[in-house]
Design brief:
The structure is a single chain. This protein is an alpha+beta fold and about 230 residues long. It has a domain of about 140 residues. The chain is built from three helices and five strands. Strands 3-1-2-4-5 form a five-stranded mixed beta sheet. About 35% of the residues are buried.
Length: about 230
């Protein structure tokens, strides 16, 4: 009897185990949304960082080019080097776009970072110029039409948006290196988008502000310097 009493060890009952499991499940349910938000915030910051690097490269380019901005690749066939690719790439070379084509672009020599071209929230499969980048230049650089000559950077206000984290939609999505503001929608970072401005800053435009500026010009998005309504 004495041996049985000494060898008997305390244990958990089924009820106690179930209670512990239930508490763990509640804690996991509470933590998962917070972890998801932290992950999304980190992706937005990394995306913004890539845009900032491109913005710095854009500024450096204009210094070397006497304030002239690079061509925004308005149209898939490049007859001259643009910010994203040159005439040796894509349809001009009789083939589809490849990821390495970004290295032929006018901005690549200024920082030589492939990672900077990609928003971590932009997921595969990639088609067209999405194979090169997640970012798109504002077609305002060529007045949304004249693909042969771009404006000077001093023709834009400092807060005018020259590039954005593109979530392009429609039949011509990611067919080239630039677009109309009306062709982009939010989607990678909630209801707003990351953008790079003419003064070299990169910021997040919240959803309501993005919707308003996307629809009405002139605005930071619709910023064609020679048009009264920015279009």
């Amino acid at each position: 009897m004495r041996w049985n009493r000494l060898s008997r060890k305390p244990g958990f009952t089924i009820i106690e185990l179930l209670v512990v499991i239930a508490i763990i499940a509640v804690l996991v349910a509470l933590l998962l949304p917070a972890l998801g938000k932290a992950r999304d915030a980190a992706r937005k910051v990394k995306c913004n960082s890539g845009l900032h690097q491109l913005s710095v490269a854009l500024t450096a380019y204009t210094v070397d080019a006497r304030d002239q901005l690079p061509l925004p690749n308005w149209g898939p066939v490049a007859r001259q080097p643009g910010w994203l690719y040159d005439e040796s790439s894509g349809p001009a070379a009789g083939r589809g776009f490849e990821a390495s084509d970004r290295r032929t672009g006018a901005l690549y020599p200024y920082f030589e970072s492939d990672d900077a071209y990609r928003c971590p929230s932009h997921k595969q499969p990639f088609e067209g110029t999405a194979k090169l980048t997640s970012f798109i230049m504002n077609g305002a650089l060529v007045a949304y039409g004249d693909s042969a000559k771009s404006y000077r950077i001093d023709q834009f206000d400092g807060q005018d948006v020259l590039m954005w984290d593109a979530n392009e939609q429609g039949p011509v999505a990611f067919n080239d290196g630039s677009s109309y503001p009306s062709e982009i929608t939010a989607g990678h970072h909630g209801t707003g988008i990351n953008v790079a401005a003419a003064d070299g800053s990169s910021v997040y435009i919240p959803g309501p502000e993005f919707d308003r500026e996307r629809q009405n010009g002139p605005s930071r998005l619709w910023c064609n310097p020679i048009s009264r309504d920015g279009r």
